[in-house]
Design brief:
Helices cover about 40% and strands about 15% of the residues. It has twelve helices and 14 strands. It has a six-stranded parallel beta sheet with strand order 2-1-5-6-7-8, with helices on both faces. A six-stranded parallel beta sheet has the order 11-10-9-12-13-14, sandwiched between helices. Strands 3-4 form a two-stranded antiparallel sheet. Strand 9, helix 6 and strand 10 form a beta-alpha-beta unit. Helix 2 runs parallel beside helix 3, helix 6 packs across helix 10 and helix 9 packs across helix 11. The longest helix has 22 residues. The radius of gyration is 20 Å and the shape is globular.
Length: about 350
C-alpha cells in the first residue's frame, strides 16, 4: 500500500506531528510493510514563518495537486486543515485514493493561541474545519472531533514513544519542575508561572523549547518575582538528550487546556517520572500512578497537582511497562492494519 502524509506543520523544532511522521517513515523503511511518502512545503515553493518552529507556508496551491497525481497513493493523510485540503481531497479521489484527515489539533487550541476573544475565533475556525474536511472519507483522532467536524467515520490515531524513552535511574533527579514544548500562549505557560508563584516551596522551573511567547514569559516571571527560579533552555533535537532531561526532573508538567494527545506526558512517564496534565489531556488516561491532573486554567489546582507529583518517587517498573506497551512499531503496525481494512472496504463499495 502506498501511503502519503501531507502537512504544513513539519519544521526543525516542531513537536508531535514531526515525531509521529519520522517514526512512521522509519517504520516503513525498516519493515517494508508499505511505501511511505511525506509531502511538505519545500524551500523552492514556500516562505518560512517568522517566530515559528521552522514551519513554511506554500506560495499557492499549484504544487500539491501534481505531486499527489505523480505519487498515485492508495491513501492520503491530511495533517492540518490549511494547505488547500479540499483541492488535495479532490485530486486524491481522482487518482482513486481514500482521504483521512488527522485531527492533531482543534479549533479551540488554535483560538487559544490568538490574541483576543477565544469564543469568536473558535467559532470561525470551527467553520473552517467543517468546510475543509467536508469531503474526506474519515477522520483519525484520539479525541471526539464532533465540535469541529460531524458525521464522518472515525479512525483511532495511535501515538507511541521512541526507544530512547525509558527509565534512567543513573541520572540524578533534580528539584525542578520541567515543561517541554512550544513556548506559546495556548500552552498554559502563564498559568504555570502563576502556579510557581503560589507554590508553598520555591521550586525551580525549567522551560525547554522555542516559540513566540518567550519574551512575554520572561517579563511575567520578573513581575511575579520568579526570575531567579526560571530557566529557559532551547529546543532539544536529540531524543537521547530529551529523555535525560525528563529523567532528571522532579516532575514534568503539561499545563495546556487543549492538548489533543499530550505526547510529552507519555514520553516522560515512560522514563518513570511523575507527570502533571490538565484533566482534559487524552494521554493522562494512560499514565496510571505516575499521572496527576488538575482543572484546566486553574493555577491553584495546578499548584496542588505539582506539589503532589513532586512528592512521588520515580517508578521504573511502570516506566518500562509504558515504554513497552506504547512502542512506535506496535502503534504504527496497528495503524497500518486499520488503514488497509479501511481502504479495502472503500474500494469494495466503489
Amino acid at each position: 500500500m502506498r501511503v502519503v502524509d501531507v502537512t504544513l506543520f513539519y519544521g526543525k523544532r516542531s513537536g508531535g506531528i514531526r515525531t509521529y511522521l519520522e517514526a512512521k517513515a522509519g517504520y516503513a523503511a525498516s519493515s517494508g510493510a508499505f511505501e511511505h511518502h511525506l509531502v511538505i512545503p519545500t524551500e523552492q515553493r514556500s516562505l518560512r514563518i517568522v517566530s515559528s518552529n521552522g514551519y513554511r507556508v506554500p506560495l499557492g496551491p499549484a504544487g500539491l495537486g501534481p505531486t499527489l497525481r505523480e505519487l498515485s497513493p492508495d491513501v492520503v493523510l491530511l495533517h492540518d486543515p490549511y494547505w488547500t485540503p479540499r483541492l488535495a481531497t479532490r485530486v486524491a479521489h481522482e487518482v482513486g485514493a481514500s482521504v483521512v484527515a488527522v485531527h492533531h489539533s482543534s479549533a479551540a487550541l488554535h483560538a487559544a493561541g490568538l490574541p483576543g476573544p477565544d469564543g469568536i475565533y473558535a467559532r470561525a475556525l470551527g467553520r473552517w474545519y467543517r468546510r475543509a474536511y467536508r469531503d474526506v472519507d474519515a477522520i483519525m483522532t484520539v479525541v471526539d472531533p464532533e465540535v469541529d467536524v460531524a458525521g464522518v467515520r472515525l479512525l483511532p490515531l495511535r501515538l507511541g514513544v521512541d526507544p530512547a524513552f525509558h527509565p534512567r535511574l543513573e541520572i540524578p533527579r533534580g528539584d525542578h519542575v520541567l515543561y517541554v514544548g512550544r513556548l506559546a500562549r495556548e500552552k498554559g505557560l502563564r498559568e504555570l508561572l502563576e502556579a510557581a508563584s503560589g507554590a508553598p516551596e520555591p521550586w525551580p522551573l525549567h522551560l525547554v523549547g522555542a516559540g513566540p511567547a518567550e519574551d512575554c514569559l520572561r517579563d511575567r516571571a520578573r513581575q511575579l518575582g520568579l526570575a531567579d527560579r526560571l530557566s529557559l533552555r532551547p529546543f532539544l533535537a536529540s531524543r537521547q538528550d530529551l529523555a535525560e532531561a525528563y529523567a532528571g526532573a522532579r516532575c514534568v508538567v503539561l499545563p495546556g487546556a487543549h492538548e489533543t494527545f499530550g505526547l510529552v506526558a507519555l514520553e516522560a512517564a515512560a522514563c518513570g517520572v511523575p507527570v502533571v496534565t490538565a484533566r482534559t489531556t487524552p494521554s493522562s488516561r494512560l499514565l496510571g500512578r505516575l499521572g496527576g491532573t488538575f482543572v484546566a486554567g486553574d493555577p491553584v489546582d495546578l499548584t496542588r497537582a505539582i506539589t503532589r507529583a513532586r512528592g512521588l518517587k520515580r517508578d521504573p517498573e511502570l516506566g518500562w511497562e509504558l515504554a513497552r506497551d506504547h512502542a512506535w512499531d506496535a502503534a504504527l503496525s496497528a495503524e497500518l492494519r486499520e488503514l488497509q481494512s479501511f481502504v479495502g472496504a472503500a474500494r469494495a463499495c466503489a
